[in-house]
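G., before I forget:
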Amino acid sequence: MAERIRWGVLATGNVAVTFTKDLLVDPKTRGVDRLVHTVTAVASSSSAARAADFLKEVGAPEDAKAYGSYKELVNDPNVDIIYVSTPHSHHFQNVMLCLEAGKNVLCEKAFTVNAAQARTVVEKAREKNLFLMEAVWTRYFPLSMYVRDLITSGKLGNVTRVFADNSVALNPETTFADGTHRMVNPDLAGGALLDMGIYSLTWVFQCLYLTQPEAERKPPKVMSSMQKYEPTGVDESATILLTFPRGSQGDAHGVATTSMRVATNPDKKGTAGPGVRVQGDKGEVQIMPPIQRPTRTKLVLHNGLIEEKTWTPPGPGVGSGWRNGFGINLHPEGVGHGMFWEADEAGLALLEGRKESRLESLEESITIMEIMDEVRRQGGFTLPENIETTDYLI
Ligand SMILES: NC(=O)c1ccc[n+]([C@@H]2O[C@H](COP(=O)([O-])OP(=O)(O)OC[C@H]3O[C@@H](n4cnc5c(N)ncnc54)[C@H](OP(=O)(O)O)[C@@H]3O)[C@@H](O)[C@H]2O)c1
């Protein structure tokens, strides 16, 4: 019989709605029969009424609890694992709150604001013998597994370069004119790098770092350039060149770019070309944007083979009346967003007694935070001390 994973949801914003709706889809629709996810409680820092509205919106079980504070949630004995979905400025404090209360955690990206905070939460999780994982959902897509297999099987030959871009032309002066939105607000750890650049780095890392034997993975060298968004001082664009030592295969270059000024996918239909190109000496695989939720790949080999694939996430299907998506951008009826795969990995870890993800170790999350620290250092971009701190303030 399938075991039940009892989730608590900390914060009720946009991504919490998307994640929780996906979480409640029957895992059998994606061939998973060892577990079933349920939501036992949710907390909103605004009010218990907001938490209750959230439970209705996502279709949670009738007996799920609605709390008006995060502290009440972390002390609920009927919660096995907490999904943290506050702005990244708050991840460190919120994850520490969960861990101190003895709860396992799946925390949204960016994991924390800096590597020192990431190291501190990892140490706390280890001290308390709890599961902790950064919610970089893209890694858990079957599409990502296909791409990693192309690399490790040698089908692309020796992979020596990966380009990954995650840029959205957000027109910040008008879209975020008052400067309070988390994309541009330094008090909420705003800027393109931590919000969107993490996906470019995710692609580069899952292709050039995760695909190496664990003992041989080494942090890359970093060169970068950053452009600032003048009204608030956060980064509006970052371009990062990483050099990965890959053992006997030699070095490989990863080029990770992000911007809120220009777009990877200007018409939102993917006609402008790939968002990621993984290049080896036998050919390349292209991943069409959006690269955080990719659904199309194109393999192009020197031997003339061209193979295009579509990877629509499963879900309850046509006739279910169920729709998910992010914000106002809904997918066709019955199609999942794709966040359930990361939840499955977290749930399986709890069943198996594992304390971290198989596809992104905590060491790798820390290494990626170190890269983002270095890019911010090279770009002269610091955030307010109260959100960079490693002092647990509660
Ligand atoms: N994986 C993905 O695809 C994805 C997509 C979007 C965002 N994200 C990540 O998820 C996190 C949240 O993003 P979001 O789009 O859901 O943001 P959002 O809609 O602004 O929601 C954030 C929620 O955090 C809570 N919160 C607590 N303190 C806050 C503060 N000082 N200011 C604002 N909100 C505060 C609020 O919930 P309560 O009032 O209920 O406490 C708020 O609704 C970010 O770290 C972001 O990078 C991930």
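The longest strand covers residues 235-245. Residues 11-16, 44-46, 50, 85-88, 90, 108-109, 135, 137, 182, 188, 195, 292 surround NAP (CB under 6 Å).

More on Monday.
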